[in-house]
Design a protein that fits this description.
154 residues, alpha+beta, Glutaredoxin, seven-stranded mixed β-sheet, 5 helices, 9 strands
Length: 154
């Protein structure tokens, strides 16, 4: 579980997106950001989450938000995932897990009786000044966009 909470300054983001272009938190200065961390491209839960954000992307944008997804997958894998599902937002390749560590979303998980380290599915709603407005740590993958929109109204 993340150590970050509402009112904290969002930690720096640095990396490459699915097109090999540099991404940083400064790119979003003056704009609101939905920063979502997910475990792996092209898996059922991660696909449902990304497609939820894709399907409501216009509404999310109308609410003044940009969307940035982050996982430890390579940029080339992100590219295939984004193209396959026609994702209209950027995906950051956090292959060294540096961004995940800064946000406190890399940790111990349990799946099908097995324990391992991985991304703890978490979304941060960040305001125009780079301050965390909401932390969503109980992500509902199939209707995550609505969850984000509800959280952004608080």
């Amino acid at each position: 579980m993340t150590h970050l909470k509402q009112g904290d300054k969002a930690p720096a983001i640095n990396g490459l997106d699915q097109d090999g272009k540099a991404v940083s938190l400064a790119d979003y200065k003056g704009r609101k950001l939905v920063l979502y961390f997910y475990p792996k491209d092209d898996t059922p839960g991660c696909t449902a989450e990304a497609c939820s954000l894709r399907d409501e992307h216009d509404l999310i944008r109308q609410s003044g938000f940009e969307v940035l997804g982050v996982s430890p997958d390579q940029a080339s894998k992100h590219k295939k995932f984004a193209d396959k599902y026609d994702l209209p937002f950027r995906l950051l390749a956090d292959t060294e897990k540096e961004v995940a560590m800064r946000y406190g979303v890399w940790g111990r998980k349990k799946f099908m009786g097995r324990e391992f380290d991985g991304i703890l599915r978490t979304t941060f709603v960040i305001d125009e000044q780079g301050i965390i407005q909401q932390v969503i740590d109980k992500v509902r993958t199939t209707d995550h966009a609505l969850q984000v929109l509800e959280a952004s109204k608080v």
